[in-house]
Design brief:
Helix content of chain A: 25-40%
Shape of chain A: globular
Order of helices and strands of chain A: EEEHEEHHHEHEE
Strand content of chain A: 25-35%
Oligomer: heterodimer
Number of domains of chain B: 1
Number of helices of chain A: 5
Largest interface: A-B, 27 and 24 residues
Shape of chain B: elongated
Number of helices of chain B: 9
Order of helices and strands of chain B: HHHHHHHHH
Helix content of chain B: over 70%
Strand order of the largest sheet of chain A: 5-6-7-3-8
Distance between the termini of chain A: 31 Å
Radius of gyration of chain B: 18 Å
Number of strands of chain B: 0
């Protein structure tokens, strides 16, 4: 099967430090990959390289479908009520308001529609970012520490969402230092590619 | 999509907007025009002769105030990253931001020029030249503002630096825009408009490159 996301022989340099090299991965529809390793080893850099936001020092990334990125920065205007902050992205993504309302409901944000984003807790913001991720309907998910700030129920929800996404033919790269249950996912230890 | 971006940017930047305080530069502008006669004394001919220049300087200073909230918050919040992932070029996002910035300060500034001119006792003819000059020059000021905001967005002391950078870069617009007051033959206005046009054309590319460079940093 043709790979949706393929990275060949990636190397990443930050400042004077070579974080990793020789890292390749290839993901077909339905596959997932867990990028693991301690803080500062280059998980976020790898995700950003895969997202095309950071140029790799060496190697190339090929992506045959649209991307969605979830990272520590939620890109939701702090002063705007949650509903409107999400509406901006769902309108850019051309997913309807009703669909976004359903996602909000699913992520336990139904009651918070009128609350400005800056009053939300860390976990609630993460849930809001997940709602945006769902609304984007992109086949390739790049998740950077998706479990940070989430409670146990939230963690299980993320695992379920990833499972559903893969069942629908999507692929997913998860960078996380926490254990996350991903059935049949390949595991990439960045430490194995340390320069 | 461009419309949606513009709507968001305007909501953030407009007076009473989410990022707040867009009325502040305007009040600042009026305050300068109001305080100037106190400083030089009630010499009506002097005020009328120098008033046009004062309005220009006040407009320039007012343009500095909103710089720190033009680009930096979106860069920190990852908005440009999310746009990039969706295939929206930084150049387009910046061009839209530039238009929104201009809309948020220039029309009101032109209106505020009327009371300011009355405070300084400007002639009808001078007022007309000032208004035309500001109309020609403010797009350039907006472009410089967005460009500098993008360049300094990832710096720690960016806000202070932005103000310092804007002054020398806006000198050409000031020279020709305010210079038209001394030689009212339209040449100065045309030059100010030409500089504005150039800046508006260059800024999206320069600021877009600045945002991409900030990601690498």
């Amino acid at each position: 099967m043709q790979a949706m996301l393929a990275a060949r022989d990636l190397a990443c340099r930050r400042g004077e430090r070579l974080l990793f090299r020789g890292l390749s991965l290839s993901l077909s529809p339905g596959e997932a990959c867990h990028v693991a390793g301690p803080n500062g080893i280059g998980k976020t850099s790898l995700i950003r390289i895969l997202a095309g936001l950071l140029r790799p020092f060496h190697g190339s990334v090929e992506c045959r479908a649209s991307l969605a990125l979830l990272d520590e920065r939620h890109a939701l205007d702090p002063q705007v009520p949650l509903e409107r902050a999400l509406a901006f992205w769902s309108e850019l993504d051309r997913s309807g308001a009703a669909l976004m309302a359903a996602h909000r409901e699913r992520l336990g944000l139904a009651e918070l529609a009128d609350v400005p984003v800056r009053y939300l807790s860390t976990g609630q913001r993460k849930r809001a970012a997940l709602a945006r991720l769902l609304g984007q309907r992109a086949p390739v998910w790049l998740l950077d520490e998706p479990l940070n700030g989430l409670d146990t129920a939230g963690t299980e929800l993320v695992e379920t969402l990833i499972g559903e996404h893969r069942a629908a033919g999507g692929t997913c790269v998860v960078a996380s230092h926490q254990p996350i249950r991903l059935a049949g996912a390949t595991r990439v230890e960045i430490a194995d590619f340390a320069a | 999509m461009i419309g949606r971006l513009l709507l968001r940017d305007c909501m953030l930047l407009m007076p009473g907007g989410r990022r707040g305080g867009a009325l502040l530069p305007l009040l600042f502008f009026l305050a300068v025009a109001m305080i100037y006669p106190f400083a030089v004394g009630p010499d009506a001919p002097l005020l009328a002769r120098t008033g046009g220049g004062v309005i220009w300087v006040a407009a320039l200073l007012a343009a500095i105030l909103p710089l720190d909230r033009l680009v930096a918050p979106d860069l920190q919040e990852g908005v440009f990253d999310q746009l990039a992932v969706r295939g929206v070029a930084e150049e387009l996002a910046i061009a839209v931001r530039m238009l929104a910035h201009w809309l948020s300060f220039a029309p009101l500034l032109l209106i505020a020029t009327l009371p300011a001119a009355a405070l300084l006792g400007l002639e009808q003819e001078t007022l007309r030249t000032v208004l035309l000059g500001l109309l020609a020059g403010t797009p350039g000021l907006a472009a410089i503002g967005v460009l500098i905001a993008a360049l300094t967005a990832s710096l720690r002391s960016g806000a202070a630096l932005a103000g310092l950078l804007l002054i020398p870069l806006s000198v050409p617009i000031l020279i020709f825009g305010a210079g038209a007051l001394a030689r009212p033959d339209g040449g100065g206005l045309a030059f100010a408009a030409a500089i504005s046009l150039l800046l508006v054309a260059v800024t999206p590319f320069a600021a877009g490159a600045a945002i991409r460079a900030a990601r690498e940093g």
